[in-house]
Design a protein that fits this description.
10 strands; about 40% helix; Rossmann fold
Length: about 230
């Protein structure tokens, strides 16, 4: 069964008297344990689509199913609970809490949404920091970390609740090429280890080259391309 299914998904915004058609009746499926990206020019609807999949913004019309649950008309409270249990997020600007250490940033989602014992939380956080290659940075705050280390912390935090799905919005945009390649490889390794689906919104050809399926958005319309087709146009 598909992890994410969109059927005739539409998202409209109204600004004053102007209606903006951000997503125009798209259909797609995302399989479990896959590496998928949405690409397209700025304003094409990539971030809007990720926000809907992440239950941050409901669709105007259409049906969206995530992890077997219809999230199309889910209320604010139910959406927050669903996100905490099923979805992790990785952001372009890391979104780490400045006053917390790397360990505490990774632990934070467990304190918010799951009733884990301190010992179980500790074991989970330590295992994710080790998997991300930053166990030796656990006691450092974000301002003491490099950009690559911050993004490793963010990836570990996204995975700490063991979500089926991680949504990554331009996760390599603020990283140099070498660091970006290492972060992409880390996410592939973690996908293989934990079976997590990673879905990206990106302009980065390095991520597109690694994606198993690429969805191209133009003016809110979507078409699907397999990896080989993306590579042939690079």
């Amino acid at each position: 069964m598909s992890l994410v299914t969109a059927e005739n998904l539409v998202k409209d915004y109204v600004t004053g008297d102007v209606a903006v058609h951000a997503i125009r009746g798209v259909d797609f499926m995302i399989e479990p344990a896959s590496f998928v990206c949405f690409v397209g020019p700025s304003g094409s609807g990539k971030s809007t689509l990720l926000n809907m999949i992440g239950c941050l913004d409901p669709p105007t019309t259409g049906r969206l199913t995530v992890s077997g649950t219809d999230v199309s008309t889910m209320g604010h409270h139910a959406a927050a609970e669903f996100r905490g249990e099923h979805i992790g997020f990785v952001f372009q600007d890391f979104n780490l809490i400045p006053v917390l250490t790397a360990y505490e940033n990774v632990e934070y989602p467990l304190r918010l949404v799951q009733k884990w014992t301190p010992q179980r939380r500790h074991e989970r956080v330590q295992s994710l920091l080790a998997a991300a290659g930053i166990a030796d940075q656990a006691d450092k705050r974000p301002d003491q970390l490099s950009g690559g280390q911050k993004q490793r912390v963010a990836v570990a935090r996204a995975l700490v609740t063991n979500p089926e799905l991680v949504l990554a919005d331009e996760p390599t945009a603020n990283l140099d090429r070498e660091t970006a390649l290492r972060i992409i490889e880390l996410m592939r390794q973690l996908r293989d280890e934990f079976g997590t689906t990673f879905v990206f919104s990106t302009h980065d050809p390095k991520i597109m080259a690694e994606a198993e399926v690429t969805f191209v958005l133009e003016d809110g319309n979507l078409q699907r391309q397999m990896r080989e087709e993306v590579e042939s146009h690079e």
